[in-house]
Design goal:
heterotrimer, A alpha/beta (about 375), B alpha/beta (about 260), C alpha+beta (about 60), B: 3-stranded parallel β-sheet, 8 helices, C: about 60 residues, 5-stranded mixed β-sheet, 5 strands
């Protein structure tokens, strides 16, 4: 059954497998984004935002506008203080494990696009176990399991079995898979998963429709509601992100921040965090234009997120170079991946399937650990006990 | 008073954001204080009547002032409900200030019982204003229960120690979508002003006025302070430059 | 009868309204609980008191 919304966001009807949520979040976020004009802010608004003890939505908007670029250093000073206030000097480490890359979507920006002629693979349970063992041997205690979108190849049973294996070896297990229903999240939570990542890619429904020409992912609102369904299914923590550069990155970042903010207000017990994937070259489309999201703009978004939601986590991706990553941890980022492979498997044996994107930081866990410590920060492997 | 800044509570509109606690005054002083304070809402308590007693406090309260009966004396939710019903019977409308205090040393309110009382009384059609200890969870529970506002204490009743709980009141203002009315502990007009500057919807005071040298004059002072604080809040406080060191080398110098 | 915590004897049968008036209470300024239940003001004149009734008679005072 379809979801009732004020905004006409969906480009395809709900599939029978998709649960519609009766929630105002989507309309509230899209309403706010409609009213956001980045050109409208000047130095005065940016300075006022930086002086205010607690940032409102308008302040967040000002910090995302072009007018904030000359104030990046001031934003950084305050962001560092906020990060230290909420996270001390701790930086969490984790790694992703792609267990399958079969996918039925045709996202134009993604290496797993079903029309891309790449090597498809899916690990069986024994292979998953070996991969997990290899990762665990590096000392990591937090693993993120990923699949492409296909209820045939990577059904919930398959994912649940993998989560169980991971939970036997890791203190913290996250999933970054296609959006699921409340009962499915509940099932995966029961199996041992505690956090869920679902990236909206872009919050502009028109652009969203352009970059997702085919597949279940076309249902914008079903994807948007994923974090809320995850919380309702008992997940402790949810992650938000727009793929910066896909559309107007300032508006997308604004929407992302609001999405997280409003969800946390509705479910005060939920932990929220941000990821900041920036369009990077991938196998079939190395000429993709990042729409003016250079490192400077990426940092601006990160700092704005930190100042708007000082208590939210922030993960820095391996899409970025080591020098960038090393400088943003402790400044605003609180979580960093290490020992990464973005192909299927790739930890125990060489990658079985082709990767989702090209990584820029392939340092081992030990190397990242040393880099963090060298900056006077504390690498943390786990700060959570699941009861 | 600018009519676009009306204070709305329980379907009524008040032009004053000063609520008077009527305790500790003689009935004779009552009318004078109310007039000088310019309040439109004053609390009263419910007590046993004396046979032959002639004093009726209602005669001291001008027409335009609404009564806010409190449930003082209640130590449990059930007792608060009972007193509220009696108060309504005495004919003062549906407003009730829920006070559930089972601590005679400090007179601190019991948040748990207060939430229960609020639930029951909202169900019976009361407009409930709960006096509470500034706890975010309790405030959320009160909002969920249908309270019309929350009344966190600034400091223990009668202590005149001001906004000891200011940081926590600020959290309530930021996080709970209900009017926040500071009650208890306000000792002088500047504290009332501070509460309003922070974003409180209204301030209640009693002891500070009742124990002043010139009671009527102090009532006027409070009135002015509360109006000033509200104007300052609406005007938007200016920037305060943060003290603190500067990074020795730029934090953003690494960008490529 | 017990009225506001004190024992008293109900001499003649009386309505609550009569009782309040003879005792010097202003019926319009009090609320009454009889045996734990509130008696509506409209019913003062028709409520017959019994010898073992427990009454609480309350009014507003300054407070808070």
């Amino acid at each position: 059954m379809a979801k009732i919304m004020r905004h006409d966001a969906d480009r395809a009807p709900y599939l029978k497998t998709m649960q519609a949520l009766d929630s105002d979040l989507l309309d509230d976020v899209l309403d706010a984004v409609e009213g956001f004009d980045p050109a409208r802010y000047g130095a005065a608004e940016v300075e006022a935002a930086l002086a205010r003890p607690r940032l409102g939505t308008a302040d967040f908007a000002a910090l995302l506008s072009p007018a904030a670029i000359p104030h990046l250093e001031a934003m950084a000073v305050r962001a560092k203080a906020e990060t230290q206030k909420h996270f001390g000097n701790a930086v969490s480490l984790f790694t992703p494990l792609y267990i399958a890359n079969y996918c039925v979507n045709q996202c134009v920006y993604c290496g797993f696009n079903c029309t891309n002629d790449i090597h498809r693979a899916k690990l069986d349970q024994a292979e998953i176990a070996r991969e997990l063992d290899t990762i665990a041997a590096t000392g990591l205690e937090d693993v993120l399991l990923l699949t492409g979108e296909t209820r045939k190849e990577s059904d919930v049973d398959y994912i649940a079995a993998a989560v169980k294996l991971a939970a036997e070896r890791f203190r913290l297990v996250g999933i970054e898979v296609y959006p699921l229903n409340v009962d499915e999240y509940a099932r995966l939570h029961e199996a041992g998963a505690d956090y869920v990542c679902v990236f909206q890619e872009t919050y502009d429904p028109v652009r969203y429709g352009e970059v997702h020409p085919k597949g279940p992912k076309r249902v914008f609102s079903y994807r948007f509601d994923a974090q809320e369904r995850a919380i309702l299914g008992g997940m402790r923590s949810v992650s938000f992100a727009a793929l910066l550069g896909l559309s107007n990155f300032r508006k997308d970042a604004f929407a992302t921040g609001l999405h997280a903010c409003l969800l946390q207000r509705k479910y005060p017990q939920a932990e929220v965090s941000f990821s900041l994937p920036r369009l990077r070259p991938h196998i079939k489309n190395i000429h993709e234009n990042p729409h003016d999201v250079h490192e400077r703009e990426l940092l601006q978004v990160m700092l704005a997120y930190r100042l708007f939601l000082p208590f939210a986590g922030m993960t820095i991706s391996t899409r970025e170079r080591p020098g960038f990553r090393d400088h943003v941890v402790g400044l605003c980022a609180t979580k960093i991946s290490a020992g990464v492979s973005v192909g299927v498997g790739g930890h125990d044996k060489a990658e079985k399937g082709d990767g989702q994107f090209i990584i820029s930081d392939s340092r081992s866990v030990e190397a990242v650990h040393r880099a963090i410590a060298a900056r006077g920060l504390q690498p943390v492997y786990n700060d959570y006990v699941r009861v | 008073m600018n009519s676009t800044d009306d204070f709305r509570l329980g379907g009524k509109v008040f032009r004053s954001r000063f609520i008077l606690g009527s305790g500790k005054f003689s009935h004779a002083m009552m009318r004078t204080v109310i007039e000088n304070a310019g309040v439109e809402l004053a609390t009263v308590a419910v007590r046993r009547a004396n046979a032959g007693g002639r004093e009726n406090i209602l005669e001291q309260v001008p027409e335009n002032v609404a009564l806010l009966p409190n449930t003082s004396g209640a130590r449990t939710a059930d007792e608060a409900v009972r007193i509220a019903r009696l108060a309504r019977e005495l004919g003062c409308g549906d407003f009730v200030k829920v006070e559930v205090i089972a601590d005679s040393r400090y007179l601190l309110p019991d948040n748990g019982e207060t939430v229960k009382a609020c639930e029951a009384l909202v169900e019976e059609g009361f407009v409930v204003l709960p006096y509470m200890y500034p706890d975010l969870y309790a405030a959320r529970a009160l909002k969920a229960a249908g309270a019309a506002a929350i009344m966190p204490l600034g400091a223990p009743i009668g202590s005149n120690r001001g906004l000891l709980t200011r940081d926590f009141i600020r959290i309530l203002i930021d996080e709970v979508d209900l009017p926040v009315i500071v009650d208890a502990g306000i000792g002088c007009p500047s504290q009332a002003c501070e509460a309003m500057e922070m974003g409180c919807a209204a301030v209640m005071a009693n002891t500070a006025i009742a124990t002043a040298g010139d009671v009527a004059l102090m009532a006027r002072a409070f009135r002015a302070a509360i109006e000033a604080g509200r104007l300052a809040y609406r005007a938007g406080l200016g920037r305060t430059l943060a003290a603190g060191g500067e990074a020795s080398s730029p934090l953003t110098g690494f960008l490529e | 009868m017990r009225v506001n915590g004190e024992e008293t004897v109900l001499r003649n049968s009386a309505t609550l309204l009569r009782f309040l008036q003879t005792q010097g209470f202003d019926p319009k300024a009090v609320a009454v609980e009889r045996n734990g239940a509130i008696v509506a003001r409209a019913d003062f004149g028709t409520t017959e008191l019994a010898a073992d009734d427990v009454l609480e008679i309350l009014r507003f005072v300054g407070g808070g």
